[in-house]
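Section handout 9: paired folding examples.
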Amino acid sequence: MPNIILDVQGLETTFKTPDGVIHAVNGVSFGLKEGETLGVVGESGCGKSVTMLSLLKLIPSPPGKIQAGRAVFNKNDLIQMTPDELRYVRGAQIGMVFQDPMTSLNPVLTIGRQLEEPLMLHVGMTRKQARERAASLLAMVGIPNAKERLNDYPHQYSGGMRQRVMIAMALACSPQILIADEPTTALDVTIQAQIVELVKRLRDELGMAIIWITHDLGVVAGLAQRVLVMYGGYVIEESPINDLYANPSHPYTIGLLGSLPRVDERKHDKLFSIEGLPPVLYHKPTACPFAPRCRWVMDRCWKENPELEHVLPEHRVACWVDTKTGRPRS
């Protein structure tokens, strides 16, 4: 059985704003196994990206602050590391692909320069060695004429090619974990499919673990082995991918899956929509954060926030109601 490579427990992150303190992440816990692809899904503002940025201390501070929690990676707690210690983890051991490559790449430096820098810093390569490695990385992610394209600037690449460059940069030092923050959001569906297939191929070749952040359950279905569903800064369901689609157990997950268009329906059913709006978290919820939008809501939901409980051996859900029967869980 694969070992746990990253163990996150009780992570809490807040942001101080003029209107009050936003409780963006509220006690998130999960484990990531070696070679596993973990999908993290949920609507915008649910805490997906902030959770992963907090692990590497990439949130702006101030206004952001990690209030509690630990994230053990290679027997060391990332949350307790100094900036200098973290600098040698980022890129070298944990790579990250950001959502918008145009704002993540430096517009005044060539692609070659940006690929070579982590190789010289983390691996100790000479500039010539780094240049050769950079060309091979571009070729690996499918950039044609890779050696010549090293001299180009980001604006000379298309959106899909810039995203491939970001993946190449994240993989430059052969990290143990790759965190991909909605890397296909701004791309058309054809390029999305190419990026997903590229990541799957590189995962299999390099044996790395992947955390794939997305709001698109269709993308994660073909990529992840396990999924975390987040809402209001909490993990509200955790399941192997097949179980999640076959047996969604949280009302929010059921709503997300119901909003997906289906190609196997015999009749033209109207897509399901979740009424209401996501919570504004100026106070850490003491009740279920999904209660105002839930069709199964009962009195207990307004008083207590449920913990994750097993419904199957590897499937956990945070809900007071059995959505199959509509009755309280025993």
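Moving on to protein 2 of 2.
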Amino acid sequence: MPSTSSAHAHQEPGFLTGISLLLPITLSTMAIVLLAPILPQMIEEFRTVPNYEYWVPMVLTFPALCIALLSPVAGILGDYYGRRRILLASFVGYAAFGIAPIFLSDLTWILATRVGVGVFEALIMVLTTTMIGDYFKGDRRDRWLAAQTATASISALIFFNLGGQLGAFGWRTPFWVYLSAFAMMALVILFTWEPKEDNPNAEAAEAPHNASWDRFPWARFIPVLVATIYSSVFFYTVQIQASVGLDQLGMTNPARIGFFTSVASIGVPLGTLIYSRLTGRNPVMLLMVELVMLATGFSIMALAQSPTSFLIGCFINQLGAGMLLPTLLVWAMSQLDFEVRGRGAGLWQGSLALGQFLCPVVVTFLSKNFSGLFSAFLALGIAAAVGALVAMVSIPLLRAKEV
């Protein structure tokens, strides 16, 4: 849409521009959280499928694998061809593949549609995050990036409840919510334009056509990616496994599971709010504190004897998780210039998604080898504590490297 882009080329981004780029992040939350309350139903539905205990959770996390593999490609496409035009097309593909399981009965085909969701989800997540980095600068950019993670967190509360309520009508019903992608596409059409490098001495082209990696800050960015992969395994554990944990503690109604998990997950937006008061602090120091909170929450979950104590552990865990994600995102985006921002955002989103994909695999492996799900939570708590120790040791080393 050249005319729209031209009309907006020299405008300042406003509140509605930010909102139009915040809301699509909920589509990534939808891909996993909306379906979490119906996971026990799907496990029962496909119990005759060989290795169903591995395959059924992949319905939630196959999109994350696609994001892990394709987010860097999405970033390259955004840097070369421009962000907005690809983003608009991605909303259509996301909605089409998202509702497909409603009409399918074979688990293999359902998993195939989840791959399609993941392809377009990768484009949506990378390009919206990149465009926030393009439009906004300095503290304003950090606030919008933190707001993006807060939006995802708040939407998780809604989707936990919505998935549980719709799951009462059958496990297929929640998939209709994927049509909401069209509403978000309309907002992007109305309130955004193709971003251009802020260079008053040159006439920017419609698309940057930049494919060089020469100026990519690998030395500074690799520690961010490693921390993101490691941390995201912990971040998504409660979102994926809380429903199963509550089921094992005697809470079997999908609506109740969705409601009480969403109550515990209020910790995520609260954690994001706490982070917004701490902007400008050393990200590795914040990461250390957040991993300690995650470790504490996992330990309480592991020792829980009732749904109430389990949910208290979930809340503490999610409070740390709410601080964790904006810490990692702002740390990543602060390292990137315009010409490599798409690729950097893609690598970061890919790292986050790789941890998301690995999360149920890790939890299932730990459950099978350490006497069940609650022992797996304890093992994750120990691993988070080890990560906090590594972060503490790394703080002076990273400061020395900056000097």
